[in-house]
Amino acid sequence: MEMEKMTTLRGKPVMEGIAIGILRFMDAQDTGVASDEHEPSAPAVLKERFVQLRDKVAEEYLALAERAKGEVGSAEADIFSTHAMMVQDGDLEDAVFAGIDAGQSLTDAIRSAGEGIAAMLAEMEDEYLQARAADAREVCARLVAVLRGGSVDSLQFDVPTVLAAVDVTPAELLQADRTKLMGFFTAQGATGSHTSILARSLSLPSAVAVGTLPPQSLEGETVILDGFTGEIILSPDEDTLAAYRDKQASVHARRKEEESYRGLPNRTADGYEVQVLCNIGRGEEAAAVLQNDGGGVGLFRSEFLYLESTDFPSEETQYRVYCRLLQEMDGRPVIIRTMDVGADKQVGYFGIGREENPALGYRSIRICMDRPEILRTQLRALYRASAFGKLSILVPMIVSVSELLWVRSQEQTVREELRREGIPFDPGVKLGIMIETPAAVMISDLLAERADFFSIGTNDLTQYSLAVDRQNPMIERLYDPHHTAILRMIALVAQNAHKAGKTVSVCGELARDTALTPFLLAAGVDSLSVSPPYVLRLRRAIRNANRSEVNLNEYLQT
Amino acid sequence: MKTFEYTVTDPLGIHARPAGMIATEAKKFTSKITISKGDKSADASRLFALMGLSVKEGDTLTVTCTGEDEEAAVDAIRKLLEKIL
Description:
The complex is a heterodimer of chains A (558) and B (85).
Chain A: E1 7-10, E2 12-15, E3 18-25, H1 43-72, H2 74-87, H3 90-101, H4 106-122, H5 127-131, H6 133-147, E4 161-165, H7 170-175, E5 181-186, H8 194-201, E6 206-208, E7 222-226, E8 231-234, H9 238-259, E9 275-280, H10 286-291, E10 297-301, H11 303-307, H12 315-329, E11 333-337, H13 365-370, H14 372-385, E12 390-395, H15 401-421, E13 430-435, H16 438-442, H17 444-450, E14 453-456, H18 458-466, H19 484-499, E15 503-506, H20 517-523, E16 527-530, H21 535-543, H22 552-556
Parallel strand pairs in A: 3-4, 4-5, 5-6, 9-10, 9-16, 10-11, 11-12, 12-13, 13-14, 14-15, 15-16
Antiparallel strand pairs in A: 1-8, 2-6, 3-7, 7-8
Helix pairs in contact in A: 1-2, 1-3, 2-6, 3-4, 4-6, 12-14, 14-15, 17-19
Chain B: E1 2-7, H1 16-26, E2 32-37, E3 40-43, H2 47-52, E4 60-66, H3 70-84
Antiparallel strand pairs in B: 1-4, 2-3, 2-4
Helix pairs in contact in B: 1-3
């Protein structure tokens, strides 16, 4: 069959769904000469212009905050109302006026004022406040953009549109006309970025890290964005378009149906109730957990604290992040995993160097056992935060009892230290381990006596058990989490956990695979943890499952 | 002039959001409201300056209000700090 050649780009999928629309490129913000550079104006005129400008921008931020509150929750709204206050701040005004008095153009005065405040914040000891330097720069960039004739409402579309951009800020995404914005893709960006988190909150099909954008000449052509795979199909032919329209319709129908499961218990037809929690990688995702009706946080990957830092994050920095998360989850369970750096997540300042085989190499707990201060700092921060909610601690990559005992001894030391220092913590904090290696599975009976709970990481467990490198595309088809060996392991781990009176959860990608939900429930899994958008879908599968009808042998003997 | 001391109990201290809330409240009054920590002090109506104090859990702040509505200002700021910090 002859087919017209369509071009396909591929990025990293952020939010699933199918977007079909007209390709549009985001306008470059910096289009030309600022209005104040045409002719010099008197300082008084420039100051007056600044006051009008910042009031306009503040109003727009407040409108955005209102919009965010209704659509994605109050945490997001707070960011914009803070930005509104930042543009109206007296220090900013003083600095801009001083620049004007010194003969600067309005653009230059705003820019240097922003840099001055950003520099002040960047110099602070507190890492959280250091990060606010970016906010100061962002609001000043916004002031300059509006001054140059850009409007906050610039992302208006006449027809259903798929947006292409080098990168998109959260503000740009929120203020875009989303009745017409079907999806977006960016050349840069990361799946864990704030923009990506927001895209998931908005259920906006999207892909990031596409690399190269399509040629500008394709603007106005039809484009398909597949948020499941991260594929972008440019100028699709009739058949392809029809196939994706069908897929899109079925996605819409399914979403609508899933909504009817909001607020219901995660209970099977025969009365077996499990927890459905969420996997998140940043504190900002707490809003998505609540918005998607998740029961709490089943896996908080603390790596971002290490990956986005230029040195080991301090106890204070970590403490604040954990506290905030616990406070936002308001008594719901929160399981925080200690740092899992190494393997595919390398951090320069750890000084680990290149490894031939990083998946089998120097990672997470193995690093901590050589450098106990890394784990101790994290445990202290976690324990201190435990006073503010219902915290459990999860330790990755345990392959032997002695490792677990070592972690327990560190935990004991931290508890004693805090008691001596008179720092409050929750003495009921549970400490569990990831089961993600065949070794841990085989000794799960021994581990169960010393751990408070298990969490099965099916991604690594599959890779290690089947000897299939997850990063190697040549053997992608061999990566099969449904393999009988994996299912037997899950059943064995659940059995051993229950024998010791402990609970077991599944937090890998398998947890959201609804084809296996009946099996996981019948095998005795107590809790499933998935990324926020999958909560309702999983609940639907649980409520439609009947545990007594599952024949485990069908899964374990074939 | 009215003044009072307040010890911060919130684990996060004065980060962006509380700074914004304090600044918003302070702007409602004509009195000059100053918050100091040790030898550093900030105009309470200025968010960046408040963040610049780098206030953490356990720090003791001194709030000073001077002006016609200082009585009401002290009350309002005290109530707000008790609520958010």
